[in-house]
Fold this protein.
Amino acid sequence: MKTLTKYIITMAVGLILTGWIAFSRGLLEQTEMVRIYHILCDSFFVVGILTSSVGSLIFVSNEGAFDPLIYGVKSFFNIFKKKEKRDLPTYYDFRMARSEHKFPFGFILICGMVFLVVSAIMYLQYIRYEEESLQVISWWLATV
């Protein structure tokens, strides 16, 4: 149940962001299907890329890519503490403590991929309608 809740919340936030992007680009004012699919494709793509990027950053962080930077910053600010309050562990102990507390990221990546797949479907629809409108325009130009 906890896992399903994570997926539902992530998808809900993504859909809200997608709707916000689509409405800010004027989705409701559009009458042509080409423009509607264009706006929906862009909206789903932006949310998909952002969600997948956050999931990828969490994965990289879980693997310890940022550990030297975090330890260095903590060491720097530890200099300004009183000697009695300095309690920074060694780098090895710091890494071991961080490796025990990994943040789950799979659900974020999967939700991001779902948004990217929906974006690809919208893009295919956009291409289909764009080709139809180009055929109508070329037919009209040929008759004039």
Remarks:
- The two ends are 63 Å apart (CA to CA).
- The chain has a mean pLDDT of 87.
